[in-house]
Amino acid sequence: MQFSSFAEFIDMGGYGFYVWLSFGMATLLLVLLVMNSLVSNKQVKQRIAKQQARQEKLKRAAKQQAQLSQSS
Amino acid sequence: MMSINIPSYRQAFMLMLKRDLTIALRHKDDIFNPLLFFIIVVTLFPLGIGPEASTLSRIAPGIIWVAALLATLLSLDRLFKADFADGSLEQMMLIPQPLFIIVLAKIIAHWLITGLPLIFIAPVLAVLLHLNENSYGALMITLLIGTPVLSFIGAIGVALTVGIKKGGVLLSLIVLPLYIPVLIFATSAIDTAAMNLPYSGQVAIIGALFFTSFTLAPFAVSAALKVSTN
Amino acid sequence: MMSINIPSYRQAFMLMLKRDLTIALRHKDDIFNPLLFFIIVVTLFPLGIGPEASTLSRIAPGIIWVAALLATLLSLDRLFKADFADGSLEQMMLIPQPLFIIVLAKIIAHWLITGLPLIFIAPVLAVLLHLNENSYGALMITLLIGTPVLSFIGAIGVALTVGIKKGGVLLSLIVLPLYIPVLIFATSAIDTAAMNLPYSGQVAIIGALFFTSFTLAPFAVSAALKVSTN
Amino acid sequence: MPSSNALLHADKLTCIREDRILFEALSCQFNQGDIVQIAGPNGAGKTSLLRILAGLSQPFEGEVHFQNQPLHKNVELYNQNLTYIGHLAGIKGEMTAQENLAFYLAMQGLPPHAAEQTLENVNLLGFEDALASHLSAGQHRRIALARLWQCQKPIWILDEPFTAIDKQGVKNLENLFVEHAKQGGCVILTTHQDLAIDAQLVKTIELEYQLV
Amino acid sequence: MPSSNALLHADKLTCIREDRILFEALSCQFNQGDIVQIAGPNGAGKTSLLRILAGLSQPFEGEVHFQNQPLHKNVELYNQNLTYIGHLAGIKGEMTAQENLAFYLAMQGLPPHAAEQTLENVNLLGFEDALASHLSAGQHRRIALARLWQCQKPIWILDEPFTAIDKQGVKNLENLFVEHAKQGGCVILTTHQDLAIDAQLVKTIELEYQLV
Amino acid sequence: MWKWLHPYANPEITYHFTGKLTPWFTWLSIILLAIGLTWALLFAPADYQQGESFRIFYIHVPAAILSMSIYVGMAIAAFSGLVWQLKLADASAAALAPVGAVFTAIALITGAAWGKPMWGTWWIWDARLTSELILLFLYLGVIALHNAFEDKALAGKAAGILAIVGVINIPIIKYSVEWWNTLHQGATVSKFGKPAMSADMYWPFLFCFFGFAFFVAAVTCLRFKTEILSRNSMRPWVKALVKEEIK
Ligand code: HEM
Ligand SMILES: Nc1ncnc2c1ncn2[C@@H]1O[C@H](COP(=O)(O)OP(=O)(O)OP(=O)(O)O)[C@@H](O)[C@H]1O
Ligand SMILES: Nc1ncnc2c1ncn2[C@@H]1O[C@H](COP(=O)(O)OP(=O)(O)OP(=O)(O)O)[C@@H](O)[C@H]1O
Ligand SMILES: [Mg+2]
Ligand SMILES: [Mg+2]
Fold this sequence. Notes:
The complex is a heterohexamer, with 1 copy of chain A (about 70 residues), 2 copies of chain B (about 230 residues), 2 copies of chain D (about 210 residues) and 1 copy of chain F (about 250 residues). By secondary structure, chain A is mainly alpha-helical. Chain A has 2 helices and no strands. The two termini of chain B are about 30 Å apart. Chain D has about 210 residues and is of the alpha/beta class. Chain D has helices at about 45-55, 75-80, 95-105, 115-120, 135-145, 165-180; strands at about 5-15, 20-30, 35-40, 60-65, 70, 80-85, 155-160, 185-190, 200-205. The radius of gyration of chain D is 17 Å and the shape is globular. The model of chain D has no long low-confidence stretch (mean pLDDT about 90). Chains in contact: A-D, A-E, A-F, B-C, B-D, B-F, C-E, C-F, D-E. At the B-C interface, helix 2, helix 3 and helix 8 of B face helix 2, helix 3 and helix 8 of C. Chains D, E: Keywords: ATP-binding, Cytochrome c-type biogenesis, Membrane, Nucleotide-binding, Translocase, Transport.
């Protein structure tokens, strides 16, 4: 252990701002990357699901129309 | 069967603004690209000139403003060109509301998409170029009042060249000379600020340019569009 | 009824070159505009930075080369955009000769129209910026070998973005980073020349870039066009 | 003299393009209930005439009157009563079919949510959320034409509305025109196809192709 | 199996745009002397099919064969035998009608001075020196079509060639197609108008509009 | 010759295979980073010249090295995609680009935050720093181009061409160090075999480096799966899979 107190740890020998800026920004960017990856994964799945739903809706509409034209 | 319920001027303005912003936001690139162009152009100069901090700091205001000019210039095409090519512009000229309302909305949308982001990124670039610390305030103020002027003046240029097949460089010829006053007073304000002197005189002039272009440009643009689409 | 008399590769190349030059010469603007843009951008700097001869002379190589980069960039659109929009590009892809021949002809036409004039006007602008007297030779040589590289690399960028509605600024984002090596070595050569030192090393590198891009770019462009028009 | 119920009348129009006289001293009038087809071979000047009638270009000589007032005196009122769809459709490829239509409807003061319903009329059900640039030539044009189904404006000026539209689509449009004319509107159009509308309802203005 | 005199045959083509299957496992063949109309409503996939046949886009699955060789194996030879004219005509507005045509003729190895004569065929006499951008919609398209009159290539793929063309123009084109087919060529085209060609000469491939 | 690649060129098999790998990478990365970062922040000794600011090293250097390796990996993937028509290679290139861009940004930011106390300035136009900045631009260009195409298969091809062309830039810029004076430190850790630094600094660095490397692997796998899905959205197995997952 290089530090004797928590305050000393935070201060980093006077370089606290720069060290924590680096670690903070790195963490932030990595977290954003992970979130973006998860979100876009979900979005793609939702897009596919939505498309499927619409296709099914259209399929039903087409079937109905076919039945109507048959009965008339 | 007379038509009913024509949207008010304000409604028409808002509709147009929303449409243009939607199109820009659809491709998010549209916002990031002029910004990136701005950043890349600024970085080209240290690469071409060399890394000495003293030289860079001396020419920083000029570089940032020239880059802002060029970034606006390159994004101007979006203002009317696409609308002209697909016939939307024709339709806009047939809208019951006066054309300058539509034009105003389009110009403001353009500034929101291209001018505003520049202002946010400029301080970072100023750091890279070692801009004098006293100058940051002046840089921000001049950009805030100056970039709308660029959009307004640029709109006139695009409106004049919209009917010509390849307006790309012709546009710059028309527009850049008109941008020169903004460039001169803005950089002068930043240089003055670096020496810790008051720069309100230059800002006042840019402010005057802003109000003039804000009130007159939409009419000039409308007139120019009518000529271009005839 | 098999087809007869297909033009040779050389004939097809010449036909394409002639067609592009005709179109450019039809609007004489096409030649003067990049040139004027170049001149205006260069003159913006003394306006933005101030007229001190020592500063200007220090930054002259950088400014001239950055302006050349931007002038080429702005004129790139002409390479394929118009042809794409009116369906000519489609027709070119169906020509019996391999696509890279057509592409090569178009790129060379582009350089003749935009790159070559820059070389003639550059010395005049160098005088305006008080370029060091020893540097003129280096300036001319780097422009002569460097601007074709700009056209070749730029063509790849346009080919990639030609199908995208608003490639304007995206193009710069793609192309400018690729231009940076040319910029660095060219300005470095001019700076070295100013100190009366030999600059053949830098010129050799630009020469290598020239040959690489000359041989590879047409193929990259053809591949990119096939993707863009799919 | 134009009769009193003339919505629009053209007074001795002359149009000269590239030193060629397309038409000279052309007078005509458009009443409520008219369907007028401007006919003529390629290059006769149909598009030029329609653009003059819509106020988009100025004639070399002569004037267009709307409700017996010269056009330039009351452009705004005229634009409130006019729908013009030209060779170019005015559809943004970056917006979806629905957004495109909603914009034009909103500009007429109609609620944007009518758009989805209207798209059904032109058989674009299922393409509401497709970007217009991803549609076929005919579907693209259908977006532009869709607004006619909601249109309250009496004067329609349509330059080759049937371009790229399939047969069923053409039939629907023709029915719409008849409907519109019956309700007191006026349709001015060009097309190189034969109209399948009762010949009594259609007036034709024949533009000749003048070589000199 | 395609018969031996098949110029071109498509083998189980599937095309998917925007997750919609336009056609699936479509096989067809085009022989010398055929005039084939690809029919179908807007958005059925006619243009997509023609572009695949012309080698301009890749099918999702399947392959096109020219003289029993897959297309990508001999693109150059195929292009020597193909003329494709799409929705966009490929005419430069900055060049005159004659220059535009001469360029395309020269690319086929024909002498450029044939251009003037050929323009007469499409009734553009007197417009040789007019910039293409100054012509009407129909005249513009006529420049593109003019090269067919000189065309030695057997395969013609034409996407809505009659767009904006007047009646006389359509008739001339139809005659040309019949002529070309008789000489052993093959014409593949789409149009929403009825062809006035002897029904025995025309084959039709019907694309259905598939909702899903 | 490329026949043996065939099973891996099947998107469905690759998708499931990647799905199996992801948790392994994730856990390895979490464990290695937890050990490495704790060690780096709490136990590693301070540098005798740079003091505690040296702890930035443990992020800066892995990020910088990864940023360049990822670019090379992306370019190789793009090249094989283009030459051998491997659609999945295009997809992996597309998955790598944003990851590389983030690590480049981290290298830049941490470098700047290190430069201020060490060199007294956030930024200088030194060859090493500049080349890293240009690398960021190259990444952004690839990403922007990828986003500009709607059709993801085309987008992958176009972005791939750009990535390959951009590779030419990398050696040129690296060797341009000779043309400029440089403040930035030369290779110390990346000299394989004989690290010129003490073991109690070197070990935590290795933990961090491999922790970040597995992080890259995990995120890339996730993005790769997304790319596969969006390129094969009309395949029945994708439809079934999506139906299963979204309920
Ligand atoms: C924005 C500023 C900076 C950037 C963009 C940057 C970039 C890089 C890059 C790209 C590398 C990888 C080199 C390679 O793998 O060959 C690297 C390594 C390194 N950097 Fe930086 N750096 C920056 C600032 C700093 C500062 C201020 C220091 C310390 C005073 C520093 C210390 C190091 C060290 C020690 C290495 C490891 C070198 C090795 O052994 O390979 N960097 N940096
Ligand atoms: N660029 C594109 N991107 C994505 N999807 C497209 C694109 N172009 C067309 N499509 C889709 O393919 C379908 C078929 O288009 P295509 O142009 O082949 O139709 P078409 O039969 O030629 O119709 P038309 O008669 O209107 O010309 C369209 O409905 C559209 O959904
Ligand atoms: N922009 C222009 N500049 C100069 N002359 C033009 C322009 N547009 C058209 N013309 C001329 O006007 C004539 C008529 O054009 P117009 O577009 O009105 O014809 P049109 O009857 O609509 O033909 P089409 O049936 O082909 O659409 C053309 O032959 C051309 O010579
Ligand atoms: Mg017309
Ligand atoms: Mg079509």
